[in-house]
Amino acid sequence: MDERKILLVIFDGLGDRPLTELGHKTPLESTPKPNLDWFAANGINGLVDPIAPGVVAGSDTSHLALFGYDPREVYTGRGPFEAAGVGIDLQPGDIAFRGNFASVDEDLRITDRRAGRIREGTEELAKALDGLRLGRIRVTVRAGTEHRVALVLRGRGLSPKVSDTDPHEIGAKVLDAKPLETAAKPTAKAVNAFTKQAYKVLKSHPVNRARVAKGEPPANISVLRGAGIYPDLMPITERLHLTAAGIAGVALIRGMFRTVGIDPIEVPGATGGLDTNMIAKADAALEALTTYDLVVLHVKATDLCGHDGKASEKIRVIERMDAMMGHLKSKLPSDVIVAITADHSTPVAVKDHSGDPVPLTIFGEGVRVDDVLNFDERSVAHGALGRIRGQDVMSLLLDISNRATKYGA
Ligand code: ZN
Ligand code: ZN
Q1: Which ligand ends up closest to the CA of 306?
Q2: Residue 211 and residue 189 share a domain
Q3: Strands 5-11 and 137-143
Q4: Domain around 325
């Protein structure tokens, strides 16, 4: 049989719960979405528990599951994916932190946790810290969006078992990193040496002098949290014997792509925000399908609306997603299997992720089309796929695309 291509579309935080204000419908049920419904009506449908029933998934753990990994085996924290997402080339064993540029007084007491939500000059500040050497440990620093930074320690015998230096509180002193296991002593020592060095380098940096002159809080410290070791994962390309590309606006997901061996594709206008250019992303996905076996297309906007608790915004975003699916449909080559799903639910009423399962539609040549007519949480529950786990999605896609290997003789 001919192997087919796979397009996996992930709408972040799409799943929701019924809302009184929407007549006891979910935002997805309330949105006219002829194209998504067309895929459901011409595909096979079901519900997905990203990790397991009732487990509240993060975007990182759920993406690992959708890519076919067992997150309980391979997940080591969010820091490494964030660092990979801002372009740091990590190696297994590296320790990655998430961090903030913050403002401190001379006693290292926090006066502003986000340095006035600094927007400009953070790349220069990161550059001033990048490449620092703390004994035999090398520090890599990159600026993220606004006040955010990613920091990576590389050296022998490092441990992720160290406490945060971010006190998460104004007026509190920057914390000393403490070793949470004996083997983590050198790592904690290095982190504390970094804190001192960072203050020394940043306090007199031209960017901060200019900020102080303008009456703005200086970004004169970098506080760290969420240490994680870069996992030694077998790339998806080797595990599944296919080539893969991914499109995402947000750094965390691009970092996930890099970590599992999915080539991230830059798309102008893909912001990871509400203003993201979904049609441009769809075109980039179609283009990538001409050279890659698997293309992952991620859209963040639904998750943002869920966190903000805005049902009407979520509906508007779903309308735009539907238009994107219409665009894809009109140009889709016949040898492509399309899967449409979400990484988890982000219900408007919860304003955070929940453990509710998410819809899944698989469309393409050879799928056993079921009776489901609409792409929403309740309709797909009647579909032929029943209720499966995130990790099963990739197995199903390999099978229907004639890429699965035989179990047994
Ligand atoms: Zn997510
Ligand atoms: Zn979220």
Answers
A1: 2
A2: yes
A3: unpaired
A4: 5-75+232-400
